[in-house]
């Protein structure tokens, strides 16, 4: 019953209640009257009825009008207000009730508006606080990420199951260096969010360290850090330090006060293979020098003793002994020279030197000089591929010190930098034009502690040079009226970092996705068909092939793969590899995949690449667009490589048909467009894998809306579609 | 050296070396890097800064054989750099070739 009917009914009832007693009295009176009295009454009525009737009708009309107005203002008005209030409650917080109708209703509206005002203020407050808290959490996260990514030590955070929740760039580089096979690919296979640390470190060793920590914690020891040294499968030596991540008080209560508070651990990992080798080399040098010299010295001594003891020796003997001395001393000299050449690096002082990119150091020095000394700087020919072994802080301090001296004593206006390499030496030149400096000046400066702009260092330029095994000198370029200080430093071995810089996606986004603390709650890594789609790790991949008929001898020429976990596509954890198919490419395919004969030549073959890909995909569900096609290629390789891809496979083509059965096209572009995904870089395997991955991640909630939550359900639904019948 | 027919004057430190060069006006200086008062590098620079001695040959002798030190010696104007231990025969040969 709507409000109108109810109101009408109420009015009728009211009318009846008000007129009823009167009519009843009239009825009773009428029944009581005699015939004459009735006739008299009727006659009297006859006279007054028209007027009375008219008045009654007019009154009725007026009454109805009044009722209508009342209905409008008090019933409809209130209902409209209720709707407005609902709107304010939900869709539009800033909406307000319009002041309309009778004063009472207006008063109500005012009160409602005041209430809304108060609520808005409160909500605004809460929102601002939430915003602030979020921003500070975000800032903290960013700071942490920045800190992590710049650390010189490899850091990996794992939960108790050994799943990686965070790793920094250094750790990644270390593991890239550890990897077997084509290094451009396999780094991603070893380390990744949600992957198991046990593919890198020995499970037993990690468990042992964890047990140590646990025991120490139970004893209430403050020192809850464990150290261990481990070798990897590739024979590298790693020194690891493990610190526990403890459950906070609040979390502990939520978890029911479990007595073990460890929820995970932080591993700092250092590859000590090189320093270990250096150490071994140093030992070897010492060994060789002492052993070698001892024998030579023995011979010389014997010869000299003989010569002294028998002054009148026969000339022939004498000649022979002298020959021995000559030979042995020459050999010792040679040995010394050779040792110096071969082991110069390992004999250097053990100052903590790091491999740094020369241009980075120069740029930092320039910034500092401009900042602190307000002295203009410029760069001339900088070798941007030059790595040096240096303590960059002291080095920059030294350059700033020289600049400040030049500015103070020689009033220079501009300092130029040059960076070049010669053999095992790197030269950093600080060049200025105008007043030349006397050589003595540099010698004085060399021995002064470095004071710059209020900063004091106990070190001198000479200390700096010596600790680097370097030199520093002053040279004049008379023709150009310029002079320069030349800092000589050792060139670093080609560092592990280099090829990663060229990884296409390593530098693509501002903040690499190296951490995901939500994974603390991820436990099992095994694939269980009844697990939710949102809780599974995926490897999304695509291949480019020579043609469309795997059974007719077409081959894979490119594999691109990216991992996805916890609703995120991990664009840093990828495989992007061109493969030599060992057969000519079909000319008609080249415009599609853009891969030419030149590009495949010299690339690894499928036998090399497939094991890496297999490891990359371990413990994950495979996702591909039109997966049947790609899987067929992989299956055909099963026999020759022995690698079986037996994990579940989800196909975005089939899933699209599940979600949008009435759409005509289920091509990747069409789906991406439907789901509002930007398509860039298509038709490279990795580009397509990225698009497929994003499509898939958008599909997961859509599938959930349809009641498809688990892997099993998704696989079954895909199986039902028409497209599932296509075979390759 | 004397046996090979050269006239030789010696100095015990950097300052003495400069004084000897002034007094003796040699064609060639054998300069040890590690000397008291002034290092061989300093003496070398001072000698090279003097235009009157443009024809002077300088051979630096050092026990330090690091590549950076050799580079510095050559950069500062030494004509040759000989690291200890060396054979006197080689040194004489080196001197002879420099004096042409």
Automatic annotation (TrEMBL), chain A:
Which regions form coiled coils? 105-150
Q: Does the keyword Transmembrane apply?
A: yes
Extract the signal peptide range: none
Q: Which UniProt keywords apply?
A: Coiled coil, Membrane, Transmembrane, Transmembrane helix
- Check the record and name the Pfam families matching this protein: RNase_T
Record bears the keyword Hydrolase:
no
Q: Name one GO molecular function term.
A: DNA-directed DNA polymerase activity
Q: Which CDD domains match?
A: DEDDh
Role noted for this protein: DNA polymerase III is a complex, multichain enzyme responsible for most of the replicative synthesis in bacteria. The epsilon subunit contain the editing function and is a proofreading 3'-5' exonuclease.
User: Known NCBIfam families for this protein?
Assistant: dnaq
**Subunit info?**
DNA polymerase III contains a core (composed of alpha, epsilon and theta chains) that associates with a tau subunit. This core dimerizes to form the POLIII' complex. PolIII' associates with the gamma complex (composed of gamma, delta, delta', psi and chi chains) and with the beta chain to form the complete DNA polymerase III complex.
Q: What is this protein called?
A: DNA-directed DNA polymerase
**What organism is recorded for this protein?**
Sulfurisoma sediminicola
